[in-house]
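Schema walkthrough. Field components (list of strings):
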Amino acid sequence: MESIAFYVFGVLSVIGAILVVSSKNPVSSALALVLTLFSTAVLFILLLAQFIAVIQVLVYAGAIMVLFLFTVMFLDLREEALRFDARNVPIKMGILVLILIVSGYFATMGFKKAFIGAPMPHSEAFGTVQGVGEVLFRSYLLPFELTSILIVVAILGVVTIAKRRLD
Amino acid sequence: MMNISIGHYLVLSVILFIIGTYGVITRKNLIIVLMSLELMLNAANIAFVAFSRQFGDMTGQVFMIMSITVAAAETAVGLAFVVVIYIHHGTLDIDVLKLLKG
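Field assembly_structure (string):
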């Protein structure tokens, strides 16, 4: 059952990703991205991370995608010709895949135990709001507070950038 | 049916990451480049949550929340830039936007 769900939604997310990078129209790109993000949320539920799945749907598939769609519609982009920068793509992708394989090899050596055998036992509250909240507010309180600075800086940046064209 | 292990999720994560990188490298439309960037971040999130499940440790999920925050901030700033660039230049074609090229 779990494996069927994994394959169905894994394939759906890959199809969505391919549509994102291959479609001509930015609107269909954005909708394909929604498909990918929703399938990823289902995968998170399979990984026993219910709270993360909800956050994924609310923030990613909700807020960020609305922002994308709003910008695309606001700018009223013409359907661009399907243009790709075809120069040196095999070389660039080859270097990328090589880096991924090498780093993946060393990561696998480092975490050899993790890849063999069943998942390690987890606590009762694994993946629930309570469990995530306890880790977030006990062990990682300072990083959590620092993200608020990041958000303030982002808000100030956006307002400054957007204000300049009004002057 | 084969049992689903962490390796399956990591392979899926790598596939999504490579597709996203391909989009960032090859696409010409600035908005689609930003979307491909979201794909790459999403692939990293899958790896975070998969390792979190494997180790039975919720730290990975906490970092995924941080990652979503960074992604949201990045998208907001990026799209503000997109709007300004479109109003200034009338296009989002990366080949046309060469102002900073030496």
